[in-house]
Design goal:
This protein is an alpha/beta fold. The protein is 27% helix and 26% strand. Helix 2 links the parallel strand 4 and strand 5. It starts with a strand and ends with a helix.
């Protein structure tokens, strides 16, 4: 299994905080935000990681993380995304790195505390398909939201719906086989002029090739000042109890 961390984007929701740096390099309590998705992958047994970033601060990732020796990685590689082409566009840049392996993809501004090693180990044997992670939320209209049938099988995923069909959000954690790159190659840009990961996941929904797990512990999308503060306070609280 290969690990992919998507750490591009402009970070506009964070306002002036990202005027001079990439949001994934901002502090979350006592470490840069990018450290946390790396640790999530390492805890799942991943030894080879590629970080996809962009903008004017891309070189700072290399200066900060170097070759991943701090996490005993076999390799830590980097890819550069021009502009803001969307999550699926960023993922497409990792095709050569992934090769014939399956992959776990994590958004660099998402904070997780679950250990997903069991799901990763199981998915490493999958020949075709995908696996996404869900979390029950109070404000589903802010996220990609799944619709279930009566047997709790996913039948659709809708991005930021005005009238959500459930309160289960798709979090920034996905697993795919290399076939995902063929799917991405067929996508058309959305109204935001981006290649949407929701379109990728709906492909697998329509082809009955998607599984899901529930995130049990806290999950925070650290894309706003308030959520970044909440995440920092949560990490500080957990660290003080260790």
């Amino acid at each position: 299994m290969k690990g992919i961390i998507l750490a591009g984007g402009m970070g506009t929701r964070l306002g002036i905080l990202t005027k001079l740096t990439n949001k994934h390099l901002l502090p979350l309590f006592d470490r840069p935000l990018i450290y946390y998705p790396i640790q999530t992958l390492v805890n799942a047994g991943i030894k080879e990681i590629m970080i996809v970033t962009g903008g004017n601060s891309s070189g700072d990732f290399l200066r900060l993380l170097e070759n991943g020796e701090e996490w005993n990685l076999k390799s830590l590689q980097y890819a550069y995304q021009r502009g803001s082409g969307g999550i699926a566009d960023a993922l497409s840049l990792t095709k050569n790195f992934v090769g014939s392996d399956n992959m776990v993809v994590i958004l660099g501004d998402n904070l997780f505390f679950d250990n997903i090693q069991l799901q990763v180990d199981k998915f490493s044997y999958v020949k075709y398909g995908s696996h996404i992670f869900l979390k029950q939320v109070l404000d589903p209209n802010r996220f990609g939201v799944v619709e279930f049938n009566e047997k709790y099988k996913i039948i659709n995923i809708e991005e930021k719906p005005k009238e959500p069909k459930s309160n289960y959000a798709v979090v920034g954690l996905y697993m795919y086989t290399p076939h995902v790159f063929d799917v991405i190659s067929t996508l058309k840009p959305s109204g935001r002029n981006e290649l949407e990961i929701t379109d990728v996941n709906n492909y697998y929904v329509k082809n009955n090739a998607i599984e899901y797990s529930m995130i049990q512990e806290e999950w925070i999308d650290c894309g706003t000042p308030s959520s970044l503060l909440k995440a920092s306070n949560l990490v500080a609280s957990r660290r003080s109890n260790e």
